[in-house]
Write a structure and sequence with these properties.
Elements: H1 2-157, H2 161-167, H3 174-192
Length: 197
């Protein structure tokens, strides 16, 4: 029985020791559980904060995406406007070039007409100068012809019947030669005044 008691005491001591160890382990597990719970709460708080940040980032991303889409649309609109402006400018430039070519052609034509007209004017001025000189010459020669004609008429008025009889006298013919010489002089004066073209 002693052995049984000792054995019971030993079993009890082992049991007490195991219980003490179990309590110590239980305390450790409780402490670990408290620590794990605190860490879990801290992690939950961090997760909540991070989720809030992610939500903010998602909102910013959505806002940026819409701004980027708006900016892209605006860039497309600006590019379209730019293309249209460039096309319109090029069309205006082409129209201006065509108008310039028309004006250039018209100018060349007008310059040719002007040169032709200047040549004609110079020709006509030369002809007019020649005609003026010719007219002056004709007027001068006409004056001389009138003078010769009057002189001839005065001489003719001074001719009497006797002078005609002496001129026609067939024997001597001296007066006839004199009259022929006078007539020849008048003919020479008339020929000198003839206008040659």
């Amino acid at each position: 029985m002693r052995f049984r008691i000792l054995s019971s005491v030993a079993v009890l001591a082992v049991l007490a020791s195991q219980e003490a160890r179990a309590d110590a382990e239980s305390d450790k597990l409780r402490e670990a559980l408290r620590s794990a719970t605190a860490q879990t709460r801290a992690l939950e708080d961090q997760r909540t904060a991070l989720q809030a940040k992610v939500a903010d980032a998602e909102r910013e991303k959505a806002a940026m995406t819409s701004q980027i889409a708006a900016a892209k649309a605006q860039v497309k609109e600006v590019e379209k406007t730019h293309r249209e402006a460039v096309d319109e400018f090029n069309q205006r430039l082409e129209d201006r070039n065509q108008t310039l070519e028309k004006w250039k052609s018209a100018y060349e034509e007008a310059a040719t007409v002007a040169r032709t007209k200047d040549a004609e004017r110079a020709k006509f001025e030369g002809e007019a100068t020649a005609y003026k000189a010719s007219t002056k010459s004709c007027v001068a020669k006409n004056g001389q012809l009138m003078k010769v004609g009057r002189e001839l008429l005065r001489r003719y008025e001074g001719v009497s019947f006797g002078d005609i009889a002496v001129i026609n006298e067939p024997l001597i013919g001296a007066r006839r030669v004199e009259v022929q010489n006078i007539l020849q002089d008048y003919e020479d004066k008339l020929i000198e005044q003839k206008v040659i073209q």
